[in-house]
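job 3f2a | input accepted
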Amino acid sequence: MDPRLELDLLLSRRQFFAGSGLRLGAVAMAALAAQAGGGRTAQADVPSAPRMNPPLPGLPHFAPKAKSVIYLHMNGGPSQIDTWDHKPGLADLFDTDLPDSIRQGQRITTMTSGQARFPVAPSKFKFSQHGQCGRWVSELLPHTAERVDDIALVKSVHTNAINHDPACTFVMTGSEVPGKPSLGSWLAYGLGCESNDLPAFVALTPTWSSKAAAQALFTRMWSSGFLPTQYNGVALRSSGDPVLYLPDPPGVSRADRRAMLDALAELNQHRFTQLGDPEIQARISQYEMAFRMQTSVPELTDWSDESEETLKMYGPDVNTPGTFAASTLLARRLVERGVRVVQLLHRGWDQHGNIAGDLPLQCRDVDQPAAALIQDLKQRGLLDSTLVVWGGEFGRTVYCQGGLTRENYGRDHHPRCFPMWLAGGGIKGGTIVGETDDFSYNVIDRPVNVNDLNATVLHCLGIDHQRFTFPSQGLDQRLTGVEPAAPVREILAG
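job 3f2a | predicted structure (494 res):
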């Protein structure tokens, strides 16, 4: 990147940081003084602080339906046939060979390409209809089934990648090639953050119950890529302190810490005027945010103000730090405080074998908390302004990997069709888009590419994905790439 070009771009957006060190210090000290005086200060006495991370000029492009996103990513690829894609006709085809006319010579992974045959494995789990919309849902998701009238289900999502890392990278960044910004970083860059005390983009990596081997999660899933590094997602830890080194060192007072950061900001600002390197501005803002998080994060993670009714709604694991239940409640508290994007990456959904043992545990982890999140947001009047997204990076094969019995089986990776659901701001609940064939193998109606979903997310937040670009490597880069993409308008609220 040309630092001169980056400087021109930043001046229109980040002019607040020009000589900001002392001004930020004054704002922070005023806030701390207010807290010391009981937390109440007359509005006329203390002016409202300018936003540390304002939106880009001209954004949003149009009136948004949602202000924030909670993205629930099931890392590993949930089996659509055992959760959302009801195929009762498969019961009569148990252990028969998958017809070549269905597979159509598809490239498959090395984990099953050497199998002598591809036997059909119907789901062992029961499905039933729910809600006014009559949605078929697996018995593994009883709580989410109660919220189907709030959910728009897209059954026909497809991707090109057949292995986890490129597939996850594609879902999160719009490209299988590493180095691109994640969805959360794009939104943090374009729309900023309403909170001055918490990051615009937070990533959570909750624990999983099956304890099966899980794929590694790379930081590129919440990375800013070629965007300035201040738009990286801040990953909160799932055990112990959510952020390390929150307390000041022994003997260092808050006033001393403030004075040190002010002096450092002044030195960094002087260096920026010499070099015009945008990473210096990023460093200034990151130091300031770290200082503010020393106060905001302990308050964020203190659930003493949550009612017993709310905690019970999220399920028995909500008081165990690092669980999916605890993480979803934390996600609600984050967006409640002005955070733009919260991304939960729940691992362990890679059931190549032992679906009967592992999949119910994975579903138990997420079912009640995900349903509670929708209900909780709705009760608080936040669902209309919060977009909730649930899905994986691909689906699973209808044919069995390894040994097949009626009580247990495994499934390989399957990119040709998988479900994702959305709820909240900008989404028409109770709708369904797309259909798969009788084998849940090919899309036969309304295919939806991953970047169509990303365009939909942007649309709900008031962004035209075609106009939202950043110059890098000689291109005006977009989250949705250069191939055609469009929001899934069938699920958009009027």
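job 3f2a | The radius of gyration is 24 Å.
job 3f2a | closed
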